[in-house]
Amino acid sequence: MDKKKQLLKPKNDIVFQSLFTQKNEEITKNFISALMEEKITKIEINTKKELYREKPEDKLGILDLEAEINDKEKVDIEVQLIDRKNLVERMLFYFSKLYASTIDKGEDYISAKKVVIISIIDYDLDLTKEIKEMETIWNIIERKNKNLMLTDKLELHIIELRKAREEYEKNKSNKKAQWMMFINNPNEMEVQEIMKENKEIEEAVVIIKEMTEDEKLERLAFLRQKAIMDEKAIYAAGLDKGEIKGREAGIKENQIEVAKKMKEKNIDINIIEEITKLTKEEIEKL
């Protein structure tokens, strides 16, 4: 590996979405299979990133990686690098939208498919701070009878990148932990060792190397990382709600300026949307 040029990190959502695509279907299938811990015989990757909205003013949701697997369930995998204190609510919002989308007009409610939401987070979560394991899985259970589950059609996974190394050290053959080590930072020496055992990750690293040589993609990843760092600074400063809103307004002004410059260079509106997190409607008005 060229030590002078660090590989792009897949936890950057621009890189993540560029890696796990229909074009790289086999790698995407193996990645999802490792996270779901089930064999995938059929996969249909959603190329439309926006969640369905009945009205333009409805809340916008941008998907990182969503697919239907084995004709029976939907899975949505999201990477969250900023602790906005709304992880659970965000997961439930995404679940509700995807669950509703599995029922066609005129069909019975029972035809709805299982929906699995997987959030890969890169911050400490108060909810799970006492849990050593890298992953927690959540369902709806009866309060007094803990072994009684209401339904298996709702499943929420939280995977904490900061606990991945310890999980990997406990069991270096753990494919899920191997993938998390890669997602976190493919430049680490452990990933070189993982590549010897996991051919799918070896192939993913090869693609990441190619992506790193793409100057346009590298620039977009840099811009996205800068936006992430700016937003992280807001939430890390311990500001009150009024101060946070003020800072967010300043960031939005910067996002608008970046969007204007990207439009001037005729960059695809979907890319502008992903970099700036502005809506298509907002970008089109610029």
Can you offer a commentary on this structure?
- With 286 residues, the protein is α/β, with parallel strands linked by helices.
- Helix content is 47%, strand content 15%.
- It is built from eleven helices and six strands.
- The chain has helices at 13-19, 25-36, 87-101, 164-170, 175-184, 189-197, 199-212, 215-236, 241-264, 269-276, 280-285, and strands at residues 43-45, 65-69, 73-80, 114-121, 135-141, 149-160.
- The chain has a six-stranded mixed sheet with strand order 1-2-3-4-6-5, sandwiched between helices.
- Helix 8 (215-236) packs antiparallel against helix 9 (241-264) and helix 9 runs antiparallel to helix 10.
- Residues 51-60 have low confidence and may be disordered.
Radius of gyration: 20 Å
Spatial strand order of the main sheet: 1-2-3-4-6-5
End-to-end separation in angstroms reads: 42 Å
Topology, number of strands: 6
Mean pLDDT: 88
The residue ranges in which pLDDT falls below 50 over 5 or more consecutive positions are 51-60
Summarize the structure.
With 286 residues, the chain is of the alpha/beta class.
Give the secondary structure arrangement, pairings included.
Layout: H1 13-19, H2 25-36, E1 43-45, E2 65-69, E3 73-80, H3 87-101, E4 114-121, E5 135-141, E6 149-160, H4 164-170, H5 175-184, H6 189-197, H7 199-212, H8 215-236, H9 241-264, H10 269-276, H11 280-285
Task: Write out key terms for the chains shown.
286 residues, six-stranded mixed beta sheet, alpha/beta, single chain, globular
